[in-house]
Here is the input.
Amino acid sequence: MSSPQAPPHVLSTKVRRTYSPVVKTSLAFVGVAAVCLFFADISITTLDPWSELGRMAQGVVTPDFSVLGGIGMIIVQTIAFALCGVALGAVGGFLLAQVFHIGPVRWTCAAVRAIHELFWALIFLQMLGLTPLTGVLAIAIPYAGICAKVYAETLEEAELPALVALPYGTGVISGFFFARLPDVWVHIKNYTSYRFECGLRSSAVLGFVGLPTLGFYLETAFGEGNYSEAAALLIIFYILIATLRFWMRPKLVGLYVLVAPFLLGGGAAIEMSNITRFLTVDIVPAPLRNGSLTTSDTWSNLADWAGMLFFDQALPGMAATFLLTQIALVATGILALALFPLISKKFFGRVPRLIGHVFLVVLRSTPEFILAYIFLQLWGPSMLPAIVALSLHNGAIIGHLVGRFSDEVRLRPDSPRGLNLYGYEILPRIYGQFLAFLFYRWEVIMRETAILGILGIATLGFFVDSALADIRLDRVMFLIAIMVIFNVAVDALSRHIRSRLRLSTRTGQA
Amino acid sequence: MLFKLSNEDLGYGGGVVLRGISIGISKGERVALVGESGAGKSTLLSVLQDRYGGNTALIPQQAGLVRSLSVFHNIYMGSLHRHGTAYNLLNLAWPQKAEVARIRPIVERLGLGDKLFVPTGELSGGQQQRTAIARAILQGGDAVLGDEPVSASDNHQSRVILAALSETFTTVVLAMHDVDLALEFSTRIIGIKDGGIALDAPAAELTRSGLDFLYRK
Here is the structure.
């Protein structure tokens, strides 16, 4: 039949592989992260990290709920700050969404959400002091920017067949509430309730800068090595989030929002002079503030000032931010791919899945800032705690979303099992969705690396925090502006890659 | 003359579907637009709506409902222009007795009485169509433009619907696919074929077989 001597090129067993753009992109990101890892400082600097870990573990198994008596009010205040902040942010975002097509509105929203809640809190602390308003605005302002974008996209993507049939002369507001809003209301409601869960985390973390929320007491408990108390606080927080859908009833929201402002606690009086000084003196670059605007010395001083800030602080800060973000992004991805089977019906039965759910809820409900804080206590300052904290928190979030998505995959009855199922049937089908979630998260991870600067990791946020500690608010503003530009650029790059790879997801929750 | 087009090219999105169209429709006429699907009936209707929408009710092809709102609210939307914004919003949150009383007889007549407070997303195609018809009836006006408003209804229901529309509106222009029904209901038939008007005659002068050529290749 066939000739005994086939031409050599037919016999060659070498297969020339071509990689799809999705695989190429993934490999490129892994490659960049590997190079970054080479430059990153990931040493463990504490003398005896493991005994500390042992004490923490002991604390986790012996939570001390006796603190509950004294801190009931803390829980209430944590919720109250989240409620006020998210309510204000959602209403503001909803109004902004109506004019989101206007360029400057869109840009302002992008800038506003590029700055993390903690930095907003630090800024408002300078203006308003340690007052409830500081905490509320710190949540409300970035959330308004995020909600505006998501609401606007939801309203834009909706099919609105009823609009054409509206009678001639229908008022704009009537038309909006009858023909536009009802069909997108469910999406808006779901997204806002997801935002409220984020708001609880934000509110808890605001305690670390001194507001009377959970973070404040967590920091004290950790600082004193009182791990049983810290464990109790965290467990209460998890229960709060896990039971959210039972106590956050749609009918009660209005009541909650009305009562919440009265539960924020008191604070120092707001001094108008502080606000004025902040806006007109403090944030003006020092060379301009001290020199005469007409002499050329002033302007060359300003150039020196900006150059010094840029090369000595912004540039190294950006480099560290970039290293940390890229490593954490890839680690998040790997972790998410490893974790999602835990909650997937394709891999596990009811009981193991329940355990997987609890595990993922704990990981994603612990604010990344608190995770980083814990690992920092364990391992000392380096990028390691930040990488682990960011990838655990974000990996659990994406793992959760991918796990839910994998449940919808339809398999043939005789599909393989175990790792073969994972590699041949599930992974190829969920990979696009997974990448879409991950790229959405890219910008979020970068924003989070900045706040870890407060814990001493030399990202951009570290330099902002240092300048804040020195009360050099002009430098703070300069560095924050660079942070915003960096963040918006990553967001744009992520959108570009998503559209090139044709990745999309209907869930705005990643 | 209520509607008037003289030698116009009609289309949407830059493409021309109908060329050199001239028609005039006077008050009191009941017009049926017939022709193959895709012939351009919807295009003609949407041009008339764009131009003469001021006092005209529209029944779009896909009913044009808000799926998450009830039958009551969807029908009420036909009267949004008659009330102030505050009253509209009040009625959105708490259906007002006066409005329910106004709308109930319309839904009873169209056989939707038991569905008044059901979200329209949960209704069948025919029930959704009748909701859109009830909305047009509540809206009222000089004329109604309907794009296949009885395509999902049986013969008996269709007659009820057409009778209700004729009672409410002095002028009725409907795209219809059922030729027998068109002949029975309308006073004038406009046949569309090959991007133009191929037939325009009083219904009384036409027979079913006289319309067959519109559907032939």
User: Anything to note?
Assistant: Chain A has two domains: 21-61+283-503, 63-282. Residues 21-61+283-503 of chain A form a domain with the MetI-like fold fold (CATH 1.10.3720.10). Chain A has a mean pLDDT of 86.
